[in-house]
Amino acid sequence: MTNRPIGIFDSGVGGLTVAAAIKKHLPDESFIYFGDTRHTPYGDKSRDTVQTYSREITEFLLSQDCKAIVIACNTASALAYQKLVKKFPDVPIINVVDPVVNYVAEHAKGKVGIIATRATTQSGIYKKSLLAKKPKLQVVSAATPLLVGIAEEDFTHTDISRGAIKAYLNNDDFSKLSLLILGCTHFPLFQTEIESFYEGKTEVVDSPELVAHHLKSVLVEHKILNEKEREKASYRFYVSEKTKAFSRIARNFFGENITLTEKVLS
């Protein structure tokens, strides 16, 4: 059945940027979102821990009859994607790294910057993948973990967020970029602030849009795209721990009528 939901998960609020893009570009698709707020952030967790959390969440989403899984978390994409693909070979699993790498490798014409969590930065997944496709590309990267906490506490578009952005990006490494990759799904929440910091001279890659388009192609490939609206798309939201900030941000994206269900997996 093509009208089964898509499963989406992240360590917290960041994946809501991906979920919103999926809702925009695939309006007939229902989804179930799981935000692992009890364990956020994933960026300072070990590989084994992130893999365990990701497996447990994927098992839960599949128990809810999801037809595909979107890992809406860069850290989980970097550390757990391959494990999940091997464990669940019959389910399409989409990560958020590959669509961005493909886009940047095709469009980058100068220096490329990457900001991400510590775990994603240390994995080197973006840099390795980009240089494999475009060996002469100049790539710089930095861990920017404070931005995750600022997003989770809903302090975007404040002096706090602007100060953190300036502290991380106001240096020679991140000057004169042609493209900047936001290597954490929390970071599109700062996209307009980062674009303002660069005064419109650097393209800040919109990764949720790229992921949504990639998801559509995967659904078409597996013949599970819900092309005909049989009933209105539905959206269900689970969190491992309810927080006021998550509730507020989720309602900003999806309206006041959403219901958050707390589900503790481990």
What does this structure look like?
- The protein is an alpha/beta fold and 266 residues long.
- Helix content is 44%, strand content 16%.
- It has 11 helices and 10 strands.
- It has a 6-stranded parallel β-sheet, with helices on both faces.
- α1 links the parallel β1 and β2.
- The relative contact order is 0.20.
Approximately what portion of the residues adopt beta-strand conformation? 15-25%
What is the number of strand segments?
10
Q: What does the overall shape look like? A: globular
For the termini, the CA-CA separation is 31 Å
Low-pLDDT segments, ≥5 res:
none
Class of the largest domain, according to the CATH hierarchy? Alpha Beta
Can you give me a brief rundown of this structure?
This protein is of the alpha/beta class. Helix content is 44%, strand content 16%.
Layout: helices, strands, pairs:
Elements: E1 6-10, H1 15-25, E2 31-35, H2 47-63, E3 68-71, H3 74-87, E4 93-95, H4 98-107, E5 112-116, H5 118-123, H6 125-133, E6 139-143, H7 146-152, H8 159-169, E7 179-183, H9 191-197, E8 203-204, H10 207-221, E9 235-239, H11 244-254, E10 260-262
Parallel strand pairs: 1-2, 1-3, 2-9, 3-4, 5-6, 5-7, 7-8, 9-10
Helix pairs in contact: 1-10, 2-3, 4-6
